[in-house]
Design brief:
By secondary structure, the chain is α/β, with parallel strands linked by helices. Helices cover about 35% and strands about 15% of the residues. It has twelve helices and twelve strands. The strands form three sheets. It has an eight-stranded parallel sheet. β4 (about 50-55), α2 and β5 form a beta-alpha-beta unit. α1 packs parallel to α11, α2 crosses α3 (about 100-115) and α3 (about 100-115) crosses α4. It is globular and about 50 Å long. The N and C termini lie far apart (about 40 Å).
Length: about 350
């Protein structure tokens, strides 16, 4: 698989990563199988998808434990991306950016991951009660201590949830302010933000900032939480624990209206081949679009099954043409937003 650089530190990863969150958190609990999750991580590594994205809040804690079982055997093949800044409270999740908490959380993550160093440690959310410079400084100290190799920031933007941001030219205004402040303390190596065909805002609002500073962009939810795979049916319903059950883009009406996006990607897929000469899939075209946004962009699709991880990895072999990109640009704006 093609390799891409994460930040000015020139840490390299496979062009496609693996989002591990769905194995433990956020989506339908009934589909989770521990052994299948382990096969999924192994498959990703086998195919060169070396970036494994996890967080202590996923589970909480169980996702890091799962990834740690694989790292115990294959640490040298993996690029470990973990996160700090959110913790489970009573019935809800709270931001915690206190320096002491950051240090304790890192040590706990290292133990669960069964490693002595985290390749990329990301600030999951900014604590409104702690100056971001203090949190980021504590994370920088972890680099100095040899526990972390590089630092990243998870952008809170248009698609992150109620109250997180709004579509339009101001979706990432707060993120850019925070990035400028953090950059004065210690270099930012990567920014993680939602980026996909139906949520493209980060491509024109965050990517220019990253490009001019040699910062990598990790594209979260690059297949639209599964919608851009073309496998979901309008009105199918979601389990109560599945975040999509409360997302306005996953109502029956919004899913029906947004089928035009899937149809457009499917037309493009018919013109391309994936690995082994097989026809490209809708998901692979969606990921290829993200890859085409720039050489510093690494899509990190979540996957619960080994077959999905293999399909995602195959997107690295799909090269979209200028005509393909024009067709995607001409697709209508997705229906259903938090505002």
């Amino acid at each position: 698989m093609e390799r891409r650089s994460i930040g000015a530190s020139a840490l390299t990863v496979g062009a496609i990563g693996l989002g591990c969150m769905p194995m433990s958190w956020g989506y339908a609990a009934s589909g989770r199988r521990s052994e299948e999750s382990l096969r999924t991580v192994h498959t990703a590594l086998d195919l060169g998808a070396s970036l494994l994205d996890t967080a202590d809040i996923y589970g909480p804690y169980t996702n890091e434990l799962l990834v740690g079982r694989v790292l115990q055997e294959r640490r040298a093949e993996a690029f470990v991306s973990a996160k700090v800044g959110l913790r489970a409270g009573d019935q809800h999740v709270v931001a915690d950016g206190r320096p002491g908490y950051v240090r304790r959380a890192c040590d706990a993550s290292l133990r669960r991951l069964r490693t002595d160093v985290i390749d990329l440690y990301q600030l999951h959310r900014v604590d409104p009660d702690v100056p971001v410079e203090e949190t980021w400084g504590a994370m920088a100290d972890l680099v100095g201590a040899g526990k972390v190799r590089a630092l990243g920031f998870c952008a809170l933007g248009a698609g992150a949830g109620p109250g997180a941001g709004r579509l339009g030219d101001r979706a990432y205004t707060a993120t850019l302010r925070h990035l400028d402040r953090m950059q004065q303390v210690f270099p930012v190596s990567a920014v993680q933000a939602e980026l996909s065909v139906w949520s493209p805002e980060a491509a024109w609002q965050l990517l220019p900032w990253c490009r001019t500073r040699g910062v990598g962009l990790l594209a979260a939810m690059p297949v639209g939480s599964g919608f851009l795979t073309g496998t979901l049916t309008p009105g199918q319903g979601f389990e109560e624990a599945d975040a999509r059950a409360r997302h306005p883009r996953f109502t029956a009406d919004a899913m029906a209206a947004n089928q035009v996006l899937v149809a457009g990607l499917r037309r493009i897929a018919r013109r391309h081949e994936g690995p082994g000469g097989r026809p490209a899939t809708v998901a692979q075209v969606a990921l290829a679009w993200v890859l085409a946004q720039g050489p510093q962009v690494v899509p990190v699709p979540g996957a619960e099954r080994a077959s999905w991880a293999a399909e995602n990895a195959g997107a690295a072999e799909v090269r979209l043409t200028a005509l393909d990109l024009e067709e995607v640009a001409a697709l209508p704006v997705a229906v259903g937003a938090w505002d």
